[in-house]
Amino acid sequence: MRTITAEQPLRGRTILLTGASAGIGLAAAKRLAALGAHLLLVCRNQARGQRALAEVQAAAAPDTPVPELLLCDLAQLAEVHKLCDEVLSRFPKLDVLINNAGVLPDKLIATDEGHELCWATNHLAPFVLTNRLLPLLEQAGAGARIITVASEAHWLGEIESTLEARIDPNRSSAFTAYCDSKLANILFTKALTERLELTPITAHCLHPGLVRSNLWVHSSWFMRAMMVLALPFARSNEKAAETIVCLVTETDPQKLNGAYLKSCRPARISSKAASRAEAFRLWRISSDETGVGE
């Protein structure tokens, strides 16, 4: 039996990470592999995924299980379900689920399934993944955790009750849709904490900071221009990934159960994000729209 060392504290742990082909996700994956974890990398694009896979494997600690690439377009819930089916059939346990993938498009976009793109990718996909993979997290036992990448943008978010409202240009924009999805990330974490109270699984969320990542590449010209002005103050992907790594390696995750972190420390959230009623309302809406989590 291999022993866990101070240099490889994650040896023997299996971690599924979405949005792993670039940016914060790739930076986090490389660091976690270097600490001995077995990485399951969820990417949308085969070519980019293969490049990320090679980088993560090159960064991995000696004798670490070879990282694996899982392809999925998280904007399509049918594909998310197929991903869950594959993971459930192939792996006996999952120690950590990291819901990292996120999009910020240049305009409101409805997916083929009728969902607003940010809502589907940034919130509904994590909702489905988490609920369906809970049995594998339960098999991991003590120390199993769910980590969701949120944002300070949640302060501007609202939870719309209908699909129609989310794709109505008179009510929403791509940026407000992004803010709404980030508020949902925090409320989802709060609701999970209550639902998992009698299990060893913990739930956490975080703000990675203003990052020099590819999130902004497909956003509006205004958002890209703002990002250019903010570049001198932006973090590298490696720096932004530190809070993810902190949460994965935390030896006492219960003390941070339900917490929202910035720079590895608990941080303030908006009154809406702290609302228990809003968390339950979000769960009901999400369950109705996905058919899971009932």
TrEMBL record:
GO function terms (MF aspect): oxidoreductase activity
Pfam family, any one: adh_short
Spans through the membrane: none
Domain of life: Bacteria
Keywords, in A-Z order: Oxidoreductase
Domain called Ketoreductase: residue spans: 13-170
Family listed: Belongs to the short-chain dehydrogenases/reductases (SDR) family.
PANTHER family: PHOSPHATIDYLINOSITOL-GLYCAN BIOSYNTHESIS CLASS F PROTEIN, PHOSPHATIDYLINOSITOL-GLYCAN BIOSYNTHESIS CLASS F PROTEIN-RELATED
Protein name as annotated: SDR family NAD(P)-dependent oxidoreductase
